[in-house]
Design goal:
The protein is of the alpha+beta class and about 90 residues long. The protein is built from three helices and five strands; from the N terminus they run βααβββαβ.
Length: about 90
């Protein structure tokens, strides 16, 4: 049995720096992934998809606003910093 050191709820802040340094169409280097990596640097793998987030062996639900951000960022729409909560399933 794998015991996660990650919380059941993630509280993540995506900053302008994450947005400026994020890579579009890249689930491992998008602004959300960069924010998670900054907050949880011991994570071995972070992938952000429009409908979920995977961190190591943990899966997290995402809010619709996060899905919208991912789509808009990938379409090169201007984005602003924001915060979100994701819950592990």
């Amino acid at each position: 049995m794998i015991i996660s050191s990650l919380p059941a709820k993630l509280h993540i802040n995506v900053t302008q720096d994450h947005i400026d340094n994020g890579v579009k169409d890249n689930c491992k280097q998008c602004p959300v992934a960069l924010a998670i990596i900054e907050q949880y640097p011991d994570s071995k793998m972070v992938k952000v998809f429009p409908d979920y987030i995977k961190i190591d062996t943990n899966y997290y639900n995402v809010q619709e606003s996060l899905s919208d951000f991912v789509f808009d960022f990938d379409m090169e729409e201007p984005e602003k910093p924001f915060a979100f909560v994701a819950e592990r399933w």
